[in-house]
Design goal:
12 helices; six-stranded mixed beta sheet; alpha/beta; about 375 residues; D-Maltodextrin-Binding Protein, domain 2
Length: about 375
């Protein structure tokens, strides 16, 4: 038996040595990559080129999807490269990312998923503050929510684009998983539940079944709810798992959302439109002339040129009573000839037309 144990130990040592050798080579290759990244940064700095390139990021993820055919999980490879790219951007230029806070909100999670852990983050109290950070160059990019698959569009984000000069440079899709967090050890101890209105709306069925007589209160964010629960052991928050770690809360129940296909879309805003990737989306807004069939006329060029509209949303205009601003997402990039031609036709038919951005689709879209 001892001989067998010794043989196993020797075999494990051999395998671990091979793994250590590979780890050493990975570190050497990362260092070589970092030196090249610094050279790229110097060129970008000299020629005033953007340090974050969504189109380049998309190509790296496409390379991973193409080459990751082995045992190592593709999802894990994407996560590893996310952090490699984050550290690389920091080597080129330490960018600042503004997001709708506080820390541990789903917007914070989306920001980290897009930019990684190596950059500097600013948590803001409002969507307007995030826009102003980018507008006034206090931040290089901002991250804001735009729509949820269950609760619908975030109107305030749409409204901010009317007078802002920022552009949409990327989109992020996050699967929303809600959890009940508390200092308490059981549901029986809970006397009140706090969360953001959207989170409450997405968990109504679960709350009715498991906490039917417990009052539910709205807060400005899921993270704010977690802060309240941190101070009062008789309360609970509906929030992310990240919030449980940051605020030292027990997870009383996981995945309490009523529908499993609960996804929120976030936008990354910046100053310049990224290059086309071949898997792009363009967003724009317009107001129409007050006449019969105006909207039909405007949308016709997209049908005629076989350009797919993925979303159209209307909001009351603040400029004039009973007039509306329409927000549209279409497939394609502003550099595509078909889309250029369609938008030229649309411009003739509208009172106001504004391109909000052309950017790579999220890989899961």
């Amino acid at each position: 038996m001892a001989q067998n144990d010794n043989a196993v130990s020797i075999k494990l040592d051999e395998l671990r040595k091979k793994i250590s050798d590979i780890d050493g080579k990975i570190i050497e290759l990362l260092d070589k990559r970092a030196k090249l990244v610094r050279e790229v940064g110097d060129i970008k700095r000299t020629h005033n080129l953007p340090f974050y390139s969504p189109d380049r990021e998309t190509k790296i993820y496409e390379m991973i999807d193409k080459k990751a055919q082995g045992v190592f999980p593709k999802k894990s490879l994407r996560f590893i490269f996310r952090e490699i790219m984050s550290a690389s951007i920091r080597l080129e230029e330490p960018l600042t990312i503004s997001y709708l806070g506080p820390e541990a909100t789903f917007t914070h999670q989306a920001a980290i998923e897009r930019f990684g852990l190596s950059l500097h983050y600013i948590a803001e109290e409002s969507i307007e503050d995030v826009f102003m950070d980018v507008e006034n160059e206090r931040a290089d990019f901002g991250v804001v929510p735009i729509e949820n698959s269950i609760e619908g569009v975030v109107n305030y984000t749409l409204d901010m684009f009317v007078n802002s000069s920022v552009k949409i440079v990327s989109e992020i899709l996050i699967d929303i998983k809600h959890n009940l967090l508390s200092k308490a050890r059981s549901l029986e101890e809970i006397k009140a539940v706090y969360s953001h209105p959207n989170a409450i709306g997405q968990c109504k069925g679960w709350l009715k079944k498991h906490l039917p007589n417990v009052p539910v209160y709205e807060t400005v964010s899921t993270a704010k709810a977690a802060k309240i629960a941190e101070k009062d052991p008789k309360t609970a928050a509906i929030a992310s798992l990240a919030a449980s770690e940051i605020y030292s809360l027990n997870v009383l129940a996981r995945g309490i959302e009523d529908k499993t296909n609960n996804t929120t879309r976030f936008l990354v805003i910046g100053k310049t439109i990224p290059k086309k990737t071949g898997r792009d989306k363009t967003s724009f807004m317009f107001t129409i002339k007050d006449k019969v069939g105006a909207l039909y006329e405007i949308l016709s060029p997209f049908y005629e040129k076989r350009i797919n509209l993925t979303r159209i949303e209307s909001r009351p205009s603040r400029q004039k009573s009973w007039s509306y601003i329409f927000y549209v997402d279409v497939e394609g990039h502003i550099e595509d000839e078909k889309l250029k031609e369609a938008l030229k036709e649309v411009e003739k038919l509208t009172v106001f037309l504004k391109i909000l951005g052309s950017y790579p689709k999220d890989a899961r879209w």
